[in-house]
Structure formats: structure tokens, C-alpha cells
User: What shape does this take?
Amino acid sequence: MNKREKRFKSILPGGVGIKVVSTKNHPRGDIGQALRSFKKELKDSGKLEELSERRYYIPDSAKNREKMKRARFHQWVANIIGEA
Assistant: This one.
């Protein structure tokens, strides 16, 4: 069984989850491969990033202020590129 087959068999349908797959070389299952797959799937799903963003409460006014700041910057960049 190659890496692609092992990864495909280890992914659980639905949310983020991995099962340990036993192979000829690892009859009790390769926990290292399962952890690598889990970390990759967790990163791809964006759950960890969302969790770190929700670590502290940010008021709506601060979010809107940051959004306006970014919009001004992007408008400034667009104006500079348009002039050149």
C-alpha cells in the first residue's frame, strides 16, 4: 500500500478525523502516519486558524476599523498602480 492509498483509507468521512490503518509493515497501525494526516487535514480545514482567531474577543468596532484601514491601503495601492 502506497502513501496515497494509506492516506485515502485513513480519512473519515464528515468532519476532521483520522483512523489508524494497519499495513504489512505496521500490523498494529502506523500512528505516526495517522498523526501527520490529522495535522494536515486540520490545517487544510482551517479549524486551528479559526480557534486562534477566537482566542480573544475583538469588538465589532475594532473589526470595522481594521477593515476600513485595509480598504484604504488597497485603494491607495490601486491608485498608485493606476498612475504608473
In short: Residues 3-83 form one domain. The mean pLDDT is 83. The chain has one domain: 3-83. Residues 43 and 49 are 8 Å apart (CA to CA).
